[in-house]
Amino acid sequence: MTTTKLSPGKFAMNYGIILGVTMILIAVIMYVTGMPLxxxxxxxxxxxxxxxxxxxLGIKAYKAKNDxxxxxxxxxxxxxxxxxxxxxxxxxxxxxxxYVIDPEYNTKIIEVVRDQxxxxxxxxxxxxxxxxxxxxxxxxxxxxxxxxxGLSLFFGLIYSLIGGLVMKNENIAG
Length: 174
Description:
This protein is an all-alpha fold. It has six helices and no strands. The termini are close together.
């Protein structure tokens, strides 16, 4: 009896696209409702719950299709690949949004942040200018996308490691 070795790639594509589209939906809902302009950020926190859940579910699905066997390496490949695909899907959206859909949106957000900071009597205008300068650098779509990609890979590795250690069941005979 020969067994076919499964590739983590199929699972990564499916679950990564689900995760990336989920982040896009959260971003679109926030944009359409104007939440960021009002300082409302809680919908973004949903992603921090969904991210590890989808990675764990992807690893679990891989294990189920692999006759219940899962090595730590397979778990890491699957989870990190899910994180990579999801980050790339979201980065494409961010670039389209910032360069095509609403190129002025980041400027609006930065102005809201500036106004909120200036309302605080304990912060000087020089401190506000310094902070806003940093925020402007970080809100550049290319810089932000690079950071997003790196953080997704890092946390994908962490969650994959945890999931892999918990679900590990290696095929000793194969």
